[in-house]
Amino acid sequence: MPYVTSEMSAIMERVGQELGDESIVESLHFSSTALTMVRHVMMTHGTIITDTTLAMADLDQEMVDKLGIQVKCFIDDRQIMDMAAQRRTTRAEVALDYALSLDGLKLIAVGSAPMALNRLLQRAALDPLSDVVVLAAPTGFASVIQLKERIWDSDLASIVVRGKKGGAAVVRAVLNALMAESIRQQNL
How far is 56 from 18, CA to CA, in rounded Å? Predict the structure, then answer.
């Protein structure tokens, strides 16, 4: 395990409890700037962008409201689908491009669309993406694991569920834990 702060420990404990799987915390890794960026997103009423409507719908709405943040998912947006068809690419890539065009700080949570991570890495190679923190948690085999490792090795502020574990339920649990910790820190 890398260095773990009390803040990270509280987040990991809550994730393990919400999922009923304490072993998930062994896979959860925070870059040195991740929690600072998460705090900025939460305190400035930034936006959480998910790659599935399921992850978005399962977030604790009371915490979302208390923090005054926005939660969005563009994957099923008609314009995104049309643009993806025109470009002959995935909806995840087009949705990510659209999300990056939004003003303000963003927490981009990916639990099901590894191509969104690939696109994020492509965009980060062109522009430092200083207004983004990423939660990389898709589940899968070798190529997905490699993409998560590339996120981990990049300069992006990131929380990465390393290895094969991940998915929409993990994204939900991590986001709920991040919001709960932010509410605790802000005494809301």
Answer: 16
What is the tens place of the pLDDT at every residue in 137-158?
999 777 899 999 999 999 999 9
Please give the Cα distance from 40 to 25 (Å, whole number): 23
What torsion do the CA atoms of 143, 146, 150, 153 make, to the nearest 10 degrees?
Answer: 170
Task: Name the token pair of 114.
Answer: 């590894």
Distance CA(148)–CA(151), nearest Å, equals 5
**pTM for the full predicted model:** 0.94
Nearest-angstrom CA–CA distance, 180 and 175? 9
* Owner of token pair 């939460």: 42
Residue type for 152, please?
W
pLDDT in tens, 89-125: 999 999 999 999 999 999 999 999 999 999 999 999 9
Helix, strand, coil fractions of the chain, as percent rounded to 5: 55, 15, 30
Calculate ∠ Cα 138-8-13, nearest 5°.
Answer: 80
Burial of 134 (C-beta count, 10 Å sphere; 0-12/13-18/19+): buried
